[in-house]
Amino acid sequence: MINNDPWARWNWQSVYPAPAKLNLFLHVVGRRPDGYHLLQSLFCLVDHGDRLRFVSRSDGQISLATPLPGVSPEDDLTVRAARLLQAQTGTRLGVEISVEKRLPMGGGLGGGSSDAATVLLALNHLWQLRLSRQRLQDIGLTLGADVPVFVFGKNAFAEGVGERLQTIDLPPAWYVVLEPPVQVPTAAIFTAPELKRDTPPMQISDWRPNAGHNDLEAVATARFPVIAEYLRWLSGFAEARMSGSGACVFAAFPSVEAAQTVFRQRPAGMHGWLAAGLDQHPLSELVR
């Protein structure tokens, strides 16, 4: 008999997914007095990402079994997310976290933010904290602007600094995602003096497939020409865009066969992957 209870199906032995996101468009519509940029974007979750495992600790310690090269465990978003959840709830439980990284750093796919959101969703469940989805989104926002959308758990039209989210239904699609061999520092793109910061706002009802653009793309491609090379190649088959602040680029196709046909033609040394669009985050059932 199949057990459909998420509280039973997801446990300490489970592997918890942290899916990537694609920004189907990303407009910078203004800037707040505190320097934060006002954005509009459409977040699409896809069926490819990192994988996390958790081991219970009774001593209250938070440890990371798989530290990233060049990143102190103290600064790792997964450790920060777990410690913040501890502090917000007063739990005395601890955890050892393992992350299988499949998403590139500096790729614009939300890898670190998605990992942090999966920590919040999984530990809220495993530690039996029973915080609401909104509370977890609020906690996530203190970690980074992209964290709330992964906790939100659905494809979303985003506004503000990325925290004001509305569910949006997307047509089925398969995505070819390419990974240029460069890490793009998000801060350098957003602080660039040439960045366009006055794109007119869009209404969610006005969005159609391939509408909009990515305001960060011009800055990133000028500073990292290899991104432009990847975009040019992929644009030969479909509308191609950069995700987030880069470096990864993508294009949508109506079927896996169409996506595979394009992917097989990529030049030697051009790395990437295929993924289906998701209707919701695989862990969305864990929280109300």
Features:
single chain; 27% helix; 9 helices; 288 residues; globular; alpha+beta
How far is it from the N-terminal to the C-terminal residue, by CA? 25 Å
What's the count of strands? 10
CATH architecture field: 2-Layer Sandwich
What spatial form do the alpha-carbon principal axes imply? globular
Q: Roughly what is the average pLDDT, rounded to an integer?
A: 95
Radius of gyration: 19 Å
User: How many domains make up the coordinates?
Assistant: 1
- Topology-level CATH name: Ribosomal Protein S5, domain 2
User: Helix/strand/pairing class, anyone?
Assistant: alpha+beta
Which percent bin holds the helix content? 25-40%
| Poorly predicted tracts of residues | none
Order of helices and strands: HEEEHEHHHEEEHHHEEHE
Query: What is the beta-strand fraction?
Result: 25-35%
The number of helical segments is 9
The CATH class is Alpha Beta
The main β sheet shows up as: 6 strands, mixed
How would you describe this structure to a colleague?
- By secondary structure, the chain is an alpha+beta fold.
- The protein has one domain: 2-Layer Sandwich (Ribosomal Protein S5, domain 2), CATH 3.30.230.
- It is built from nine helices and ten strands.
- Strands 1, 2, 3, 4, 5 and 6 form a six-stranded mixed beta sheet that branches. A four-stranded antiparallel beta sheet has the order 8-9-7-10, with helices on one face.
- A hairpin with a 6-residue loop joins β8 (240-242) and β9 (249-253).
- The mean pLDDT is 95.
